[in-house]
Design a protein that fits this description.
Elements (H helix, E strand, L loop, with lengths): L9 H9 L7 H18 L1 H17 L8 H38 L5 H4 L3 H4 L1 H8 L2 H27 L1 H5 L6 H42 L3 H35 L5 E4 L4 E6 L9 E7 L1 H12 L4 E3 L1 H10 L11 H15 L20
Parallel strand pairs: 1-4
Antiparallel strand pairs: 1-2, 2-3
């Protein structure tokens, strides 16, 4: 088997991205979210202390109530929960937004339907054990152990350095001790967040290298992909050329039409009928929007009548193909149009634009 020594092609990268296979580190999201949360907590410290004070006062005040019922406990809990949620809501929203930004910064805007499809391998115990005991699983385990050890060391050193201040909290006033404890906790958490971000940056570099390695291709794969790409491009060019030729032939047939029936804006169908040679009128051109405008413009340039009939135009466009006769159920309606056009010309088939239809029926026999 050929070794994968070739760099991945742009098509290989696009296919992998469509399947949700991108290089990213979950630790980056965690580190950014943690750092954002700490910053928001630190910047809103006074507001949080006020909210905590209010919660404590209401909690202790409610202890004096004599009617402890389920309703009073429920209402008191909802009131206290509302205060806590109101204080923490900016932090929760900020952390969520920071996590989304960190994820988008790594992989861009990506919504993969392939990644959302159910996969039996994800719930297969055997596949799970293989992932755990694989080389990738071992790397993830070592990374987790290192991250826990690094964060633990930061927390330990932070507590050790602030131990004299922490031991003296018992001699301070309650609010003063709480404020000092809050600042110590913020400082320790900030150091831990920085350490997590450093680890996350290294992990992101590692994930990108692993992702590039997984996308590498063998020489034979590169050749086969080039063949498939060239064949697809050739087929697309052939289809495009066929469409152009069909459009050219269709537009060339418009000057020989007897009438063009319009919607009037969105559809146009050109009909041609030669008495004695055709069993019924044929559709020589049809189109919608820009093609319909081209058909009408060509018809006007060659003095082919353009008749507005919304119902008939929709029916012809839906049921009749170019080069085929119109359906039998439309004979009567088309006969009226052709009879009207012929009468205006005294038997000729070239007139100026007509904008209304008579109500009398006619046949083309």
């Amino acid at each position: 088997m050929d070794e994968r020594t070739e760099a991945p092609t742009p098509r290989r990268r696009e296919d992998a991205r469509r399947k949700g296979q991108v290089a990213k580190s979950v630790d980056v999201n965690s580190g950014v979210a943690l750092l954002t949360g700490i910053w928001l907590l630190n910047s809103g410290g006074a507001r949080f202390m006020d909210a905590l004070t209010t919660v404590m006062r209401r909690s202790f005040t409610s202890l004096t109530a004599t009617d402890f019922t389920l309703d009073t406990l429920r209402s008191g809990g909802m009131a206290i929960g509302g205060l806590v949620l109101q204080a923490l809501l900016p932090v929760l929203v900020g952390v969520m937004v920071a996590g989304v930004i960190a994820n988008v910064a790594q992989v861009g805007f990506l919504l993969s339907e392939e990644a959302l499809k159910p996969d039996a391998n994800r719930v297969n115990p055997l596949s799970g054990f293989k992932r755990i005991f694989s080389a990738r699983g071992l790397v993830d385990l070592l990374k987790a152990v290192f991250k826990i050890a690094a964060v633990g060391l930061v927390v330990y050193t932070g507590i050790r350095d602030n131990y004299p201040a922490i031991s003296s909290f018992g001699q301070m006033a309650l609010m003063t001790a709480a404020n000092h404890l809050y600042q110590v906790a913020i400082s320790i958490c900030l150091r831990a967040a920085v350490v997590i971000l450093v680890i996350a940056a290294a992990d992101y570099v590692f994930q990108r290298k692993e992702h590039e390695k997984s996308l590498r291709m063998s020489h034979q794969e590169v050749i086969e992909e080039a063949k498939r790409y060239e064949n697809a491009e050739l087929k697309n060019r052939i289809r495009s050329r066929r469409r152009q030729l069909a459009m050219s032939r269709m537009m060339a047939a418009v000057p020989n039409a007897d009438v063009v029936i319009t919607n009037p804006v969105h559809l146009a169908v050109a009909l041609r009928y030669e008495q004695g040679k055709m069993r019924a009128p044929q559709v020589v051109a049809k189109g919608q929007r820009l093609t319909a405008e081209r058909i009408k413009e060509t018809a006007r340039q060659h003095e082919v009548p353009v008749v507005e009939n919304q119902t008939l135009a929709r029916a012809l466009f839906k049921s009749a193909e170019v080069g085929h006769e119109i359906p039998a159920d439309l004979y009567h309606a088309v006969a009226e149009v052709l009879a009207f056009v012929y009468r205006l010309h005294h038997g000729r088939k070239r007139v100026a634009v007509a904008s209304s239809l008579p109500r009398t029926a006619a046949a083309w026999s």
